[in-house]
């Protein structure tokens, strides 16, 4: 799967980014507001420098960037706390750095969709724009505490909670109605943009919609207009992202396997006058999903003590040449195996004879 994804990214001119397992701890200490976790495994190097097992790849890419345009992809392990314990998780991702115009933005979103397509034709890519949501809240003139409550309710699609705020006088009825419409919107990208336009009452909100419309038109040219859904409940990490944000979902999984968006604030904090957009695909989640239906081999080929071993080897190789995985085991063994098909080998067997 990684090889297929790598080929996909290389078709678009992205080069592979490779880094050490370790990074200077200072990089994470200085950018904690951009990390998604508080705890990091650290150690002292032989020269006395404080190092960390990397919890993030994007920060390292931005650190190495010289302020120039750059398109990279990566396959790297990150060390993160999951369920109270640290785990090493494989991530595959893409980052585009430089002058991020509507094409560059749409290209990364298209790569996210194509990545999901490699995993399942029934994927869904949900997309939002935190600058549009932020502009709507700005035009409402909400206090910081109420704004925080509203964002939490929007993220959970909690319409009754918005009604409670209106009953308490923290929102006007008109504001609660507009936010309800925002929360309940889930539609193909172009259709959704058309429906939400009436909520925009400021230049900033209109500009955010205009940019989103340009992106939608380009995604249509990529042939993806039917696979991207507008969902403004994606408002997480508004301090990290500053524009479009998206998440990818696969059948049978209730959490996103892919997350990404526009994050111009990070390079600017590092003193680099460039924009940036990217995404990460959590291969760890996919491995957990695959474990439930994983087989040890397509064919379990058992043989007795008197089997003709040369014929067994030739038969197994013929099956492998047809694209099947084959595990050979002496009959009566205690191994607990899950295989699609089990065959008992006998001399002279052919793949055609057993329907394989």
Structure description:
One of its GO terms (molecular function) is transferase activity. Pfam families: tRNA-synt_His. It comes from Flavonifractor plautii ATCC 29863. This is Class II Histidinyl-tRNA synthetase (HisRS)-like catalytic core domain-containing protein. Residues 2-283 form the Class II Histidinyl-tRNA synthetase (HisRS)-like catalytic core domain. The protein has 356 residues and is an alpha/beta fold. It has three domains: 1-119 and 249-293, BirA Bifunctional Protein, domain 2, CATH 3.30.930; 123-248, Bira Bifunctional Protein, Domain 2 (BirA Bifunctional Protein, domain 2); 295-351, 3-Layer(aba) Sandwich (Rossmann fold), CATH 3.40.50. Helix content is 39%, strand content 24%. The chain is built from 13 helices and 15 strands. The protein has a nine-stranded mixed sheet with strand order 1-5-6-12-11-10-7-9-8, with helices on both faces. A hairpin with a 5-residue loop joins strand 3 (42-44) and strand 4. Helix 1 (2-11) runs antiparallel to helix 4 and helix 5 packs antiparallel against helix 10. The protein is globular. The protein starts with a helix and ends in a 12-residue tail after the last strand. The mean pLDDT is 89.
